[in-house]
Amino acid sequence: MKRLLDVLREDCRLTGTKEGCGEGECGACSVIVDGEVVNSCLIPVCQVEGSSVTTVEGLALNDQLSPLQRAFLEYGAAQCGICTPGMLMSAHALLLRRPHPIRNQILEAIAGNLCRCTGYTKILDAIAAVSSGNINKPDQSE
Hints:
Layout lengths: L3 H8 L18 E4 L2 E4 L13 E2 L12 H8 L9 H14 L5 H7 L11 H12 L10
Antiparallel strand pairs: 1-2, 1-3
Helix pairs in contact: 2-5
């Protein structure tokens, strides 16, 4: 039985979702299924039939990075890139539920996502910047 991760990457060619550990421990493969963050390496694709699945590719709108994606760039929150899609998805889900989280809520939201490069400070700062409005929506004239 194919995993959701495999179908996304191989069949749908949505390669933004990364495989890290393959055991649901690192969060690199995080996607949003029906509003909930899940590790796509643990989900048989048959379990998401009829569900809404959002990958990191779904964050951009009209070829414009989302404010969260732009914040990750501006704050240097992306290093090697393996954890970045999962971090973005966990942060996106948090900001949908709680648009102005406090730092501890951000920490809790990304607790299932491991990063070996940044030390988390830049990631937390990027998410906090979006929640405080310091990263605005793209200019419509661009």
